[in-house]
Amino acid sequence: MALWWIEQGLGHGRVVAYTCSCRMTAYELVSCGGVYQIRRRTLSRRGVPPVSWTAERWCRGESLERWRRLLAGLAR
Prior knowledge:
This is Transposase. This protein is an alpha+beta fold. It has 1 helix and 5 strands.
């Protein structure tokens, strides 16, 4: 499953789940007004923005499934 990444998110939200920030790329599942998005944070690299967001927004159930797939390596 491919995730489409953009440079802006819903705004300030609450981090619901996250991966370790000690890795080159870290992810956060963010809730903002009942809508969920995944935020990707990367160390500085040429051509890759340090923070990007999934273009899609989901309800809670679907976001948890996308999050599970991302952690399992079934989404990028």
